[in-house]
Amino acid sequence: MGTTGNIAGIEIGLPSGIGEVTAEWMTAALRASGGIGAESTVASVRNEPFVAGGLLSLLYRSTIESEDPDAPATVIVKFPTDVPQLRAMADAVNVYGREVAFYRDIAPRSTIAMPIVHAAMSADDHSNSCIVMEDLARLRQPDRTAGMTWDDAVRGARALAAFHAGWQGSPELTELMDTYMSMGSPLNRTVLPGVAGAGWPAAKLHRGHTLSDDVVAVGDMWVDVLPKMLDRMELRPTLCHEDWRADNMFFDANDDVVMIDPQLAGVCNGAFDLAYFISQSTEREMLDGRHAELVAEYLSVMAENGHDLDPEVFFFDTRVAVGLVLMYGFASYPDYEALTDEGKAMTDKILRRGAEAIEDFESLAALRSLVD
User: Fold this and answer.
1) Cβ atoms 166, 109 nearer than 8 A
2) Which of 153, 173, 226, 253 has the most CB within a 10 Å radius?
3) Which residues belong to CATH 3.30.200 in the chain?
4) Cα–Cα distance measured from residue 240 to residue 58, given in angstroms and rounded to the nearest whole number
5) 111-121: buried (b, 16+ CB within 10 Å) or exposed (e) per residue?
6) What ranges in 208-290 are assigned the alpha helix state H?
């Protein structure tokens, strides 16, 4: 795993869509990356939609025929979504340019393990992008329905800390914010109140009967306390993945974490990534009250890498971040009636996990202390 020494860029030509991912084009991409030898060719490519496609991307699995014995049998090819509303949202925050830049510039300088990337390119005008990466289908993934096991959750938290440690307080962060938006950016401060204004009342309408008084109180005060939460997430910054969850996580033969989809990477307090991971990817029954122990695992790796974060302060930051990430729990509810049964079940689960995390981390008290 990990990026190759070379990644093909726009010099090989940016395909407009999967129809232009031909044997000739794939030959150029794999030669540039070292996926095949300089004199080798790809004889044929068969492209098929990849059913595990992401929300903001069109994914394809390309099956490759080549005389080169080292050629990958399959790769994943990624293009921007063709859903206009989603595309507009993604373009507004430079999702595709961010992902290309992360694979090309950040992953090679980080401890984070990611797929081998053969090609990563984005048009200068952001009109299109394309990524060709290693197919990780052979690797183990956490159970998306049941959530992480304790051992995998510890692995996830420790791998996250190792990644964060490489960028904690880096003098490069200010410059990186040109590409990797700060959590406290003016855009977030402008847009997120509207997300809550539509999402939280809809969530209460459909699932309010399942929510505790504490969770309802957090949701009701969420917009008012949002500026304070974002202020907190700007303190002690690092470079965050911002989508660190089971769906984007694989484990190799050594049980080391391999991550994909850095489309939302940004500059933020590391507590955000950890809170997001716990509230999105774990079940209360599995954690069994060991929330502080999981945070301690993260802090121990940060300390091993020279960052002795104050445990009390960081735990408080995590409690605040758990309240902030409730937005992922309510964001889909305005369109709830239009969702499939599977989509409704997933939306309900995200809200339930986030609500339970709010209770278990006692986030209400933390948020109230921000505004008292």
Assistant:
1) yes
2) 153
3) 10-134
4) 24
5) ebbbbbbbbbb
6) 213-233, 270-281, 284-287
Distance between alpha carbon 331 and the CA centroid of its chain, in Å? 16
DSSP character string of 151-204? HHHHHHHHHHHHHHHTTTT-TTHHHHTTTS-BTT-HHHHHHHHHHHHHHHHHHH
Q: Which residue has the tokens 């847009």?
A: 191
What are the Cα distances from residue 297, in Å, to 159, 160, 219, 258, 280? 10, 10, 29, 18, 18
Residue pair 338/294 in contact (Cβ under 8 Å)? The answer is no
Please compute the mean of the pLDDT values over residues 23-36 and round it to a whole number. 97
CATH fold, domain 150-371, is: Aminoglycoside 3'-phosphotransferase; Chain: A, domain 2 (3.90.1200)
List, for residues 51-101, the tens digit of each pLDDT value: 765 678 999 999 999 999 999 999 999 999 988 888 988 898 899 999 999
Both structure tokens of 237: 């910054």
What are 250-260's pLDDT values in tens digits?
999 999 999 99
Give the residue range(s) of CATH 3.90.1200 domains in the chain.
Answer: 150-371
pLDDT digits (tens, 9 = 90+) for 337-362: 998 998 899 999 999 999 999 999 99
* Region class of 60: left (phi > 0), else alpha (psi between -120 and 50), else beta: beta
Distances (CA, A) of 101 to 61, 109, 334: 22, 12, 33
pLDDT in tens, 139-162: 999 988 888 999 999 999 999 999
pLDDT of residue 54: 66
pTM, to two decimals = 0.95
Q: What is the mean pLDDT of the chain?
A: 95
Is CATH 1.20.950 what the domain over 10-134 is classified as, yes or no? no
Query: For residue 52, what pLDDT is reported?
Result: 61
- β-pairing, 266-269 vs 257-259, is unpaired
